[in-house]
Amino acid sequence: MSNLNGAYYGPSIPPPEKKTRAYNRPSRGGGGCNPFSWCFSCICGCIFNLIFQILITILVLLGIAVLVFWLIFRPNAPKFHVNEATLTQFTLSTDNNTLYYNLAVNMTFRNPNKRIGIYYDRIEANAEYHDKRFDTGYLDTFYLGHKKERNVGTVFSGEQIVVLGNGDKSKYDQESRDAVYNIDLKLKLKMRLKVGWAKPKFKPKFECDLRVPLTTGGRVGSSGFQRTKCDFDW
């Protein structure tokens, strides 16, 4: 056997094949970006953004309008006082819980505004005793001009069943001994403000906590009636 010297004289050995990266071509039928969906989401986003900007603009303009209105007209709440209250009968029957009453009230409506008039289109006056309404009256409607006031009177008279709890019955007995009764006068209003050409409508309330002495035989109870300022609630 002849000696091998390491040389090779056979056919040439082909070079190793290069590995190619495999990749997937996007198929025509599915996957990838849908131009229609993209356009739709873009349009929706633009619409929502536009609506949001419009709402913000409206709120800002309303705020400016309210500020300008306040600076020009400086609106103040209407004022209401009970000047006098005369009670000649306030008897609660122990047999049938019937309250016999005769209450006359003199009131003052005042408009403190310089540039705003007030239309009182409806005035409902309720007389209550310990949250129990015993009579309702309706006052004449009127218009109250700038810085004007008007005196109004009404009478609550008659009989009404009023059922009091034990605590309120004890209070009634004590008030009867003192000849001074805690009576509430509550007014429900329908009114319009005259602001230039505009006449906005409101349904506010007046609430008055009165301490009314009983007048018998020309004599008033332990203390006379004190003029009372009433609370206004929009």
From TrEMBL:
Subcellular localization, as worded in the UniProt entry: Membrane
Keyword field contains Transmembrane: yes
InterPro entries registered for this protein in UniProt: LEA_2, NDR1-like
Domain Late embryogenesis abundant protein LEA-2 subgroup, chain residue ranges per copy: 108-197
GO biological process terms on file: defense response to other organism
Membrane topology of this protein: Single-pass membrane protein
One Pfam family per UniProt: LEA_2
A Gene Ontology term for the protein's cellular component: plasmodesma
Keywords: Membrane, Transmembrane, Transmembrane helix
Coiled coil segments of this chain: none
Segments crossing the lipid bilayer: 50-73
Main location: membrane
Protein name in the entry: Late embryogenesis abundant protein, LEA-14
Species of origin: Artemisia annua
